[in-house]
Amino acid sequence: MSPYQTLDWNVDPDGVLLLRLNRPEQLNAFTVEMANELVDAFQRASQDDAMRAVVVTGAGKAFCAGMDLSVGGNVFGLDEQQRPTLEDLRERLDDPAILNGVRDTGGRVVLSIFDCKKPVIGAINGAAVGIGATMTLPMDIRLASDKARIGFVFGRIGIVPEACSSWFLPRIVGISQALEWTYMADVFDGQEALRGGLVKAVVPAEQLLNEALKIARRIATERSAVGIALTRQMMYRNAAQPHPLAAHQVDSLAMFYTSIGDGKEGVQAFLEKRPARFASQASDMPPFYPWW
User: 3-state DSSP call for residue 56?
Assistant: First the structure.
């Protein structure tokens, strides 16, 4: 049984977690409850050594049709009585009043994905609009089905891109493409997403999940858990550093500790012309982790 109300959780024998957004009758529309469950799910996946990779998709015909706008009150779950400042966000980030009444729910989800030690593959099976699109941005590899429809549609309802997308989207597709998609607020197909560099490939709908699982299983069964966890955070965090020396400092420590860990098995397997049998677990990271 899934431990969640809005998600379906399934881990296969290879250690791949298949996480489905599971409100199919509402096209998997996003709610505060779903946000909280996604944060919990990615925190669990990050810490549990039984999970080596994560695939995220939607139940039914949609990936996620955006925020559920049918709920009462502030549809984004925000406390309209507050008048928050940037200082509040900097100094009181986890204060319950700020956490529950001010912070963007999509952003909390995206930050939990960003912090995850495990690689995350997005399988966009249908409509992915608003938060349905932006939640895929911190996923490491995105595949779209030929039925996918993607839109950064915030401009249509007078709001701004959320879920840290102003950080992720320009890094993925370039600032000009990011601005065009968010200014125009159009819904586009998988081929446009592929042309713009948002997705790795567009595949027939019936093949999408298998293709995503194939990628995830290869990482889960053939790669070092510690090496992958370090690589993921090094790529995301070092890419934003102002000087490559900062990357060199982290690279040096990561190389040192992986070379005396799974690196020994990897070299021996190469010399013996056999598959490597990596033994590390992401719960046992080198002593300099986290370095930020």
Answer: strand
